[in-house]
Amino acid sequence: MSNSSNPWAPDEDSATVYAEETWLQGNLLSNIAYGVELTLFVMCFWILARQTKRSNCKRQLFLLSFISIIFTLGTVFMGAQAKFTQQAFIEYRNFPGGPSAYEEVMYSNPVDEIANVCFIVGNWFMDAFLVWRFVVIYKDIGRFWVSMLTLLPCAMLCTSIALGITFLVQTSASSPFVDVNMTLAYYVMSLALNIIVTMLIVGRLLVYRRRISKTLGPSHVTCYANVAAILIESASMYSAFAILFLVPFGLGNNLGNVFLQTVNQVQTVSSLLIIFRVATGKAWAEDTTTQIMTNPGSDTIRLKKFTSIQFATGNTSTAANSTLTAKDLPLEPGCVSITHETFRDDGESSV
Fold first, then answer.
1. Are 66 and 125 in contact (CB under 8 A)?
2. Any residues with CB less than 8 A from the CB of 3 and at least 6 apart, and which?
3. Which of 258, 238, 253 is nearest to 187 (CA)?
4. Which UniProt keywords apply (predicted)?
5. pLDDT tier at 102 (50, 70, 90 boundaries)?
6. How far is it, in rounded angstroms, from Cα 127 to Cα 130?
């Protein structure tokens, strides 16, 4: 008995009960993540569709297609996972070893195969999307250096796709818990790709943050290079969550079951958060550096000449012509200096 003080406890040992708990809790946690995914998808789709114009039609259609694909894959994955959990805990409750054994062994079940395919294919799309964001953020350093820097992520992405295909072929006949080496190889490669790209993106954004703060002041880092922006742009949430799954899984701890069922939704949420920033104009774009870093280090503010204004006094008929001008002056960031020059009827002027 797992708990002798509980007369209604199941007739399984504590290890089996714990394994079943992790599978069930992981499924419940994935439902929460899917709710966030659904909300973000609707928000992104609405904003992108509303902003679609002839001038940006290609980019908007690309983003709309991308979010529709990853959301569809995530939805099918959730449906298949829910059915598989139902089979394990209800329809095949008396499977030898219980529901946890069923979930670990029956990966060749057609329902779970659908979930696995959606999981892996969605992972490929979102890994490729992260590499694309990496290229966008680094594009201002020059085509040659961008090409050199993307060699490693692209090679790792191709390797991840090859390992993913092998993983799907092998799990269709066995289980990832049986062939742990192949499972670890695929997830380690995918995780390594995300961590490397994440670190490179974080490093680049921190450099931008320092430059913006030094040139324009700390208040100007709030949009593109604050902590939240850096974490979202780099998809750090997925990398952290993948580690939470991979470490227990590699150690053979059932705690990994909780995060295994949620990691797909977390990766989708990470991608949708980036696209939401793109849709709202807050994400780092190819021309962002040019826009906010023009004339770095300059403290001069240049204003155009204002229209002449006539001032009249109530006690005299004398009228004065006043001209507001701005001169190039070295100023503190955020300050504007305006010179007020007045011309009287006698030809004299005062400033």
1. yes
2. 9, 14
3. 238
4. Membrane, Transmembrane, Transmembrane helix
5. confident
6. 5
Phi and psi for 322 in degrees, rounded to 5?
A: -115, 135
Predicted confidence (pLDDT) per residue in 116-141, tens digit: 899 999 999 999 998 988 888 888 77
How far, CA to CA in Å, does 69 sit from each of 41, 73, 123, 265, 346?
A: 11, 6, 12, 13, 77
Question: How far is the C-alpha of 171 from the C-alpha of 109, rounded, in Å?
Answer: 10
3-state secondary structure of 311: strand
Residue 39, sorted as left (phi over 0), alpha (psi -120 to 50) or beta, turns out to be alpha
pLDDT at 65 over 70: yes
Backbone angles phi, psi at 212, to 5 degrees: -65, -45
How many Å apart are CA 240 and CA 3, to the nearest integer? 34
Q: Do the Cβ atoms of 201 and 229 come closer than 8 Å?
A: no
Query: At 309, phi and psi to the nearest 5?
Result: -125, 135
Q: How far apart are CA 117 and CA 98, in angstroms?
A: 25
- Residue 5 CA, chain-centre distance (Å), reads 47
Q: Which pLDDT does position 224 carry in this prediction?
A: 55
341, 343, 349, 351: CA torsion to nearest 10: -20
Indicate the average pLDDT of the chain: 77
Question: Which residue, chain included where needed, has tokens 């809790």?
Answer: 25
* Chain center to CA of 333: 32
pLDDT value of position 264:
87
